[in-house]
Amino acid sequence: MVRRLRAQVDRATSALHRLQAENQRLRRRVEELEEHPALHPDATTFVLDDEPNVLRERISSFLDAIDTVLEEPPPSDSSSSPHSSP
Question: CA nearest 5: which of 17, 13, 15?
Fold first, then answer.
């Protein structure tokens, strides 16, 4: 029974040492990333929180609206023309 407990303690100790080493490695990596961030301060970050299907639907809706505006005939009122004479 003591032998089995000792083996469990040894395994737990090994796991603890492994986790401490990984924790130290991750701390160093975090420090590196904080010193040299991947994003530059003048860069614009574009984050999409929507699901792909929802985003695709929104973009399609915007494109349809743009198409509608572009397909409308120009106004026939000559007073709105930039080349109309006074």
Answer: 13
